[in-house]
Structure formats: structure tokens, C-alpha cells
Amino acid sequence: MVRRPQLIPWRTAGRVSEEQASADDVVREIGWVFNNETGNRLHLEQFTSTGDHEIFAYLNAFELPTDDLAQQTLVEIGSGIGRMTSGFTKVFGHVIACDLDAAFLERCRQTVAKLGIVEHLRTCHVADGRMLPVADNQADLTFSYITLQHCQRDDALSLVGEAARVTKPGGHIALNFRTWTPIDVFLWPLGKITRALWRVPGLGPWLARRRLASRLGWQANRLSPDKVSNYLDGLTERFATRTIYHSPHRKLAERSDAELRTFEGVHRSHWWLVAERL
Ligand SMILES: C[S@@+](CC[C@H](N)C(=O)[O-])C[C@H]1O[C@@H](n2cnc3c(N)ncnc32)[C@H](O)[C@@H]1O
User: Which one of 37, 47, 99, 115 would you pick to mutate in the ligand 1 pocket, going by the greatest count of ligand atoms within 8 A of its CB?
Assistant: First the structure.
């Protein structure tokens, strides 16, 4: 497999997760990778409760169908150690958690076994970071939060195509992206330097365990609504509706291919694409 630098911090964090004795220790050591919280008193239940709150905030804000969730299948791209997956298994009948790192997926299963419904869970290893080992037309909802911004640009677009492929007609995709902000004048070059340093033997894995360096380097792409929309237009799968959710504190130009809506819960630098597959 091609060694792509943006995979390094996740595999490093995955290895750290393998070394921990308990799920609470995992959260103390690498929980910040997922929700930015640090502290030696943190525990798994607090960690997943942040995900539990977000699930309903997003399902409601995006007006996704919620009346028969127990019959629905959700595909999550970038599940990590199960911060949101645990809650997803409590509301969806089937959850397919996909992640780049196999150790995260093992920890995800443990998280769900403790705090979710493990019988509802299947895990899928995205070994190449771009193709989901999931059959076509499986998902009622394909969801991805704070993950596509961490992939190399082409991998992120490939995963958008995969989301479209695994979602059944009538189902939805809800995908979160990061786009440009003024502070990127500084952040973008620093991120490039950090990703280059990750490749240096010895230094790279050490750096990938440092919070500041990771935060600088791991946002490996910025994707605009135009770019993603054009990519969707080139797919064989078609979408009946497209809605872009963005922060009310950030203006986006009106567009002909998608309705624009604001939601307070969206970070200024983020946006979401929510679309129904035909
Ligand atoms: C910041 S975490 C977010 C996890 C989870 N969505 C949450 O909100 O807690 C990003 C996750 O994406 C995974 N990831 C990064 N690149 C990926 C790729 N190319 N394919 C699949 N998963 C990827 C990482 O391993 C990590 O678990």
C-alpha cells in the first residue's frame, strides 16, 4: 500500500490505544483525538455521552427520517473508538462502523459492548483509506463526522463516492467537511510541514503523539461545496435533494444545485452535505 502521511497520526493513535489496559485509559490517552477533551479523570461514559447528544442534534437539524430507526442501517465513515457509534447502535437496528485503523475498530467494539448494543454493530476496516468494504445499497443513512477533512483530498472524494454507492435509493448521506477560513493562511503551510515531518523515521511517530503537532497536521484537505457538488455530478448515483448546512456565523453564496441552511451546531470552518439518493 502507498504510505500516505495523513494515515500516520491515526495509526499511531491506534497503536497507543492497543497499549492501554482499560477503555477508560484509552479515553485518557487518546480521547482528545476525537473530541478535544483532555484530563486524567475522563472516562468512557463521559466520552460517549458527547456523541449521544450530537446524534440527535444532527438527526433533528438535518430533518432525517427518525420514525423507524430500529429498522434502519447506518454506515459510519470514521467511527474511531466509538464516541458516536455507541449511541448509534442504541437507535439504529444495524450500524456498520468503518475506520482506517483496525485497533480503533477493536476499541469501538469494546465501547459498544459496554455502552451500546453490540448485536447491532458490524465493523469494517478501510484498509486503503478510500474504499469501504461494504456492499452497494446497504445504508438508510451514511454518516461521517470530522473524518473527511483528515483524508488526503482524493481519498476524501473517493469516500464521498463510496458513501453514495453504499446508500440505498431513498436513503441519505450526511457528510461533514472542512473548508477554507482566513486563519488557514498560517495553518495550511504549518500543516504541510507537520505532515512532511511525520515521514521522518523516529521523529514522525513521536510527533504524531503530540497534541499541537497533530492538530496542525491532521487536517489534510479543505473541500468546498463546489468541489464536492461537482464530484457528485460525475457519479452514477443520483440525488433527489441536496442541502448544505453551515454555521450562521459564516455566509455562503446562494447556489442552484443545493438549498442552503444554517445550524448553530456547525463549526464556522465546517459544512455538511445532506442529500437523498434517488
Ligand atoms: C477525529 S476522528 C472522528 C471520529 C468520530 N467520527 C467522532 O466524531 O468521534 C477521525 C477518524 O477518522 C478516521 N480516518 C481518518 N482517515 C480515514 C480514512 N481515509 N478512511 C476511514 N477512516 C479514516 C481516523 O482513524 C479516526 O478514527
Answer: 99
225-253 residue pLDDT tens: 999 999 999 999 999 999 999 999 999 99
pTM over 0.90: yes
**Model confidence pLDDT, tens digit, residues 150-162:** 999 999 999 999 9
Q: In whole angstroms, what is the distance from residue 166 CA to residue 39 CA?
A: 38
CATH number of 5-277: 3.40.50.150
Measured from CB, residues less than 6 Å from any atom of ligand 1 are 10, 34, 77-80, 83-84, 99-101, 104, 126, 129, 145-147, 150-151, 155
Domain ranges (residues) in the chain: 5-277
